[in-house]
């Protein structure tokens, strides 16, 4: 699920309607709108996933993880440790 386009700007950053965010490639359930929070970055941010295996994470450097869809591997963004309203929050 590609939330942000570097050429067209962020589409879902200010989108707060109720619902479930799913992967655009495989429809895997990723995040609930209840876990979304406002953030100063241009990307939408969430505090938790729908299921434990909704996403997979790979450490790119200390404190920064590449986040992918847990089902198909589609790139979703990054998680920055100790960022957001609680520790270990993802920003996609």
Automatic annotation (TrEMBL):
GO MF entries: L-methionine-(R)-S-oxide reductase activity; metal ion binding; peptide-methionine (R)-S-oxide reductase activity
Signal peptide: none
UniProt-listed PANTHER family: METHIONINE-R-SULFOXIDE REDUCTASE B1
GO process terms (BP): innate immune response; protein repair
GO annotation, cellular component aspect: cytoplasm; cytoskeleton; nucleus
Protein name (record): Methionine sulfoxide reductase B1
Subcellular location: Cytoplasm, Cytoskeleton; Nucleus
Keyword Plastid recorded: no
Keyword field: Cytoplasm, Cytoskeleton, Immunity, Innate immunity, Metal-binding, Nucleus, Oxidoreductase, Selenocysteine, Zinc
Native organism taxonomy: Eukaryota, Metazoa, Chordata, Craniata, Vertebrata
Cofactor(s) needed by this chain: Zn(2+)
Major localisation: cytoplasm
Catalytic activity: L-methionyl-[protein] + [thioredoxin]-disulfide + H2O = L-methionyl-(R)-S-oxide-[protein] + [thioredoxin]-dithiol; [thioredoxin]-disulfide + L-methionine + H2O = L-methionine (R)-S-oxide + [thioredoxin]-dithiol
PROSITE patterns according to UniProt: MSRB
Family (UniProt): Belongs to the MsrB Met sulfoxide reductase family.
Domain MsrB intervals: 1-92
